[in-house]
Fold:
Amino acid sequence: MELYKQIYYCLIPFVGLVFTEGFLFLSGFGCFCSLYKDSCVIPFYKKRIKRLLPPYWIMVIPLCLLTFYNGEPFTNIILEILSFKYWIFGNTALWYVSVSLVLYLMCPLLFRYCFNKCSGVLVRFIFGVVSFYLLGFIIWFLFPNYYKVTYLGFTQIPMFLFGMGVGYLFMNKIELKKEIVYFTFISFAFAGVLLSFSNGILERYRLRLCEADMKQLVGLPPQSNYYG
Structure:
C-alpha cells in the first residue's frame, strides 16, 4: 500500500505541473505572436486584462464576499480581488492568475529585450531563462519561509519565456532539425520529472524522507524542529 501511495503522490503533482506549465507555455506563445503583429503596449495590455480579469472577478468576488462574511479582513479581500494576495501571503488557490498578470506586465519588456531583431537572440533568451531561475534561488536562499508559500509561481515562470521562444521561431519561420526538436522534448520531459520532486510540490513527502538526514548534516539534535 505504501508503494501505491508514493506513486499517487508522485504522479498527481506531476500531472498538475505539466498542465499548469503547459498553460504558461501557450500563454507565452500567444503573447509573443500578439506583440509580433502589433508591438504597441497599450492595446496589448487592454486585450490581456480584458481576457484575464473579468472571468477572474466573476469567480473570486462571490468567494471573497463569503470569506468576508466569515471574518476575513477587508484588506485581504481587496488584495485577493486585485490578485496581489498570493505575492504577499502565498498559498492561494488562484496563484496562477497572480503569476499570469505579472508575466503579462513583463511581456513587452521581455519581447523587446530578448527577441528584438538584433543578433544574439539565443544568448539573451538563455540569459533571461537563467535569470528567472536565479531569482527563485535568491529568494529561496534569502527568504526561505516566503519561498515555501510562493514556490509554485517562481518555479514555473520560466515556462512562459520558453513559450515566447517557440513563438519567435514560429513567427520568423525558423526551421529546426528533428534531432533538436526530439532532444528538446525529451529534456523538457526529464526536467518536468525532476521538478516534480525538487520544486516543493512533494514538500510533505520530501521533508518526511529527508528531515533526519538534514538534521544530522547540520548537527541538530534528532528531535529538533529543523524546518520550523
In short: The chain is about 80% helix and 0% strand. Residues 2-37 form the longest helix (36 residues). The two ends are 30 Å apart (CA to CA).
